[in-house]
Inverse folding.
């Protein structure tokens, strides 16, 4: 069942992404509630099917409780819902409610918010409870087929939610499981709280642990129109040169981020909006580099860290000017904006203290299962006992691994150590050649296969 729900959720949000629709926040600074909203394209579903689907993804069908909230949502509705199609909302009639009567009594929001503001359409009388067929059971709420009009009113309609109809859904995320005053969805989205299973609920809340705000890896999910890769901002206390930043990324199984499209640029840049990422105008390192001897200041740029093709350049970028009078042949973000700039490899320590952050990307799928390895490590699905960002099952043991005695020979000395450590690993175990947590026949077989001198 869990896999079926996940597949359905992927379908739901992939549909939205295909129409270039992303969740947007009604910011408190703009007079909003801090909640996040997404309008899904129409699909054939019942109201309950939409409700279950959205709930499984950490949200709820939207509760529109004011004209201001309606006006914030309406542009997205207009972009996503064709004329003569509706969009379900998070309200229904409760026949057990003391105020229930037809057609206007007993209406309740799924969140329990007060039912105090309404926006019934006047194009036809609503609520009407005028379902065709044998029953009059229009007891669920939607934006009516007349809602997507040039005037952008977004009026409501009661409809029979038990029927499978082609309609969209307005999805809202409002939960704040750790009561820090910030909606969880945004913290999962920007990596300030971990959400490694991708259900828009912080992992710390699911485990009943205290939530620690930080810079956690986040995935650009395929269901959101992404590539399935994982990204993380890393900050340093001192200036870090490009080469050192590249080494940090690769030591964790990744590489300095390579940006291949505007959508990826938007996704990655927002991770840099965090304390410590900027020194004056100097933002984090990216994986771009200029080929030596290709000519200054323009030259030829490549994604040196990843080897990806150079197919895109950020807007308003100024990455080919050698502005400091030296060879500026490495790439970073600049000016607290989604703007690229070329800079010297040392990170320009004499200017505002130099670059002190980097953006890491993980894309490897060493076991070819269609899922990026790093996410499976984060979720505990694949072991990474040596903490190098590469699943242990993908790291092929070598003669050096079998040379437990470290004398450049695999011989009786190594065999004796292995036999003495037979069984489950302890902190002193050195003989688990295949890193599976136990010294057993598999390790013995590997040791015997490497018997003899090891190359120096």
């Amino acid at each position: 069942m869990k896999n079926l729900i996940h597949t359905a959720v992927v379908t739901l949000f992939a549909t939205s992404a295909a129409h270039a629709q992303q969740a947007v926040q009604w910011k408190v600074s703009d007079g909003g509630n801090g909640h996040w909203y997404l309008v899904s394209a129409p699909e054939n579903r019942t109201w309950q099917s939409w409700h279950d689907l959205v709930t499984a993804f950490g949200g709820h069908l939207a509760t529109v409780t004011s004209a201001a909230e309606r006006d914030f949502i309406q542009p997205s509705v207009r972009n996503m819902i064709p004329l003569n199609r509706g969009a379900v909302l998070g309200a229904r009639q409760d026949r057990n409610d003391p105020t229930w009567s037809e057609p206007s009594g007993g209406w309740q929001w799924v969140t329990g918010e007060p039912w105090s503001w309404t926006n019934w359409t006047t194009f036809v009388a609503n609520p009407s409870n005028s379902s065709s067929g044998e029953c009059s059971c229009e007891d669920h709420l939607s934006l009516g087929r007349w809602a997507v009009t040039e005037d952008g009113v977004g009026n409501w309609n009661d409809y029979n939610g038990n029927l499978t109809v082609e309609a969209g859904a307005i999805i809202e995320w409002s939960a704040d499981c750790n009561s820090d005053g910030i909606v969880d969805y945004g913290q999962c989205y920007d990596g300030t709280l971990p959400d490694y299973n991708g259900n828009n609920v912080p992992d710390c809340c699911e485990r009943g642990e205290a939530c620690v705000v930080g810079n956690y890896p986040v995935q650009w999910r395929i269901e959101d129109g992404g590539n399935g890769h994982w990204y993380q901002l890393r900050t340093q206390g001192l200036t870090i040169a490009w080469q050192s930043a590249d080494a940090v990324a690769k030591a964790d199984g990744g590489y300095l981020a390579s940006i291949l499209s505007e959508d990826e640029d938007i996704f990655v840049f927002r991770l840099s909006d965090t304390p410590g990422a900027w020194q004056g105008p100097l933002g984090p390192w990216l994986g771009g580099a200029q080929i030596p001897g290709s000519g200054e200041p323009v030259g030829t740029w490549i994604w040196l860290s990843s080897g990806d093709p150079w197919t895109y350049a950020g807007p308003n970028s100024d990455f080919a000017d050698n502005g400091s009078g030296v060879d500026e042949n490495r790439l970073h973000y600049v000016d607290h904006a989604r703007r690229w700039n070329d800079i010297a490899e040392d990170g320009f320590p004499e200017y505002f203290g130099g670059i002190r952050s980097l953006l890491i990307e993980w894309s490897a799928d060493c076991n070819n299962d269609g899922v990026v390895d790093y996410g499976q490590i984060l979720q505990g699905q694949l072991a990474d006992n040596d903490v190098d960002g590469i699943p242990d099952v993908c790291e092929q043991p070598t003669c050096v691994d079998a040379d437990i005695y470290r004398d450049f020979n695999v011989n009786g000395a190594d065999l004796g150590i292995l036999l003495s450590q037979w069984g489950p690993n302890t902190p002193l175990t050195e003989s688990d050649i295949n890193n599976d947590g136990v010294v057993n026949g598999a390790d013995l077989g590997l040791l015997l296969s490497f018997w003899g001198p090891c190359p120096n």
